[in-house]
Amino acid sequence: MNKDQTNSQKKLLHGVRPSRIVYPILIGIAAVVYMLSKEVNGKTLSLIEFSWYSLFWLCIALIMMIIRDLGYMARLRILTDKKFSWGKAFRIIMLWEFTSAITPSAIGGTSVAILYLNKEGLKVGKSSAVVMSTSFLDELYFILMFPLLILFLDINQLFMTDIHNQSLWLDSLLYFALVGYLVKTGYFIVLTYGLFWNPRGLKWLLLWIFKLPVLRKWKRGANQAGTDIIESSKELRRKPFWFWLKAFIATFCSWTARYWVVNVILLAFLFQGYSITEHIMIFARQLVMWIMMLVSPTPGGSGFSEWVFTKYLGEFLPSAGVAAAMALLWRLISYYPYLLIGVFILPKWIKKHFSK
Fold first, then answer.
1. Element (H or E) spanning 29, and its range?
2. CA-based, 20 to 30 A from 187: which of 49, 71, 139, 178?
C-alpha cells in the first residue's frame, strides 16, 4: 500500500477517534436531564418500582441486544463466505457500531466499515461488496416492514397519540417518517439497480451528480465509489438465492431483536398490562422512530432519539417524567455500550494495523 493510501485511511479514522464519544454522551444526557427537570417529582419516581421481576426483564433486554449482535455477526460471516471467525466478526461489528454511534445517522459507519473489512483481510472490491450488501439487506427490512405494519395497525393508530387523555396528531413525526422512508426507498432502488443490473450506469450517474459546483470537491471519492460498485456487482450477481435468504434471515432476527428491547423494558416495570396489539404498536413505533433518526444531524441520533421516545411512546407510560427515565434506560442498554466497547477496541485495532 502506498503512502497516499495510508494517509487517506488515517485521515478517515481520525473522524472516528475515541475522544468523539464525548459529544453524543453530552447531547443525549443533556436532553434527558432537561426533560427530567421539567417533569420529574416525587410522585413520578414513586411510579417506578424496581424488583427482581424488573431485573429479570432487564436481563432479557440485554439478551435481545446480544441476539441483535449475533445476527449481525452471522450475516457478516455469510456475506464473507465464513472467511471471518466469530471473534473477528465480533470485533468488526463492534467497530462498525461504534462508528455509527459517533456519526450522524444519515452518514453511519459505511465508509469506514470498508476500511475495517479490508484491514481484516478482504480485498477492497470484496469489502465494498459486503458493506453494500449489508446496506441492501437493512434497507430491504425497513422497506418491507414499514408498509406491512401500517396495513396491520392503520396509519391513524401509528401517528395519533393519547397522552394524558389528550389526543394529538403528530404531524411533525409523520413528516419525519415519510421523508426518512422516501430517502431509504430511493437509496434502495438506486443501490439495487446499481448492484444487480447496471453498475456502470450508476457510476456514470454518480459522476454526473458530482459535477455540480457544490459537490465537485468530492468527485474523486464518487469515482472511487462507482468503481467499488462495479467490483461489488461482479461478486454479488453470482450469489444464489439461498445465500441471500440466509443473509436476510440474519438481518430480520437482528433488527427485530433490537426493537423488542423497548417492549421488554416496559414489561420490566409493568406500567400496564399491554395487549398483543399494543406490543405490536410499540414495536411499529420503534421502526418509525428509526426511520426518523435518519434525518437527525446529531451523532447516533443523540438528543433527538430521547425526545422522540418521550413524545411517541409516551401514551404507553404513566407520565412524561417516566417516559424520559425510560428513554435514558433504553439508550443505556441499546446505545452507550457500543461507545464504551469501541473506545476499548479501536485504539488497539489502529495500533495493530497502522503501527508501521
1. helix 22-39
2. 71
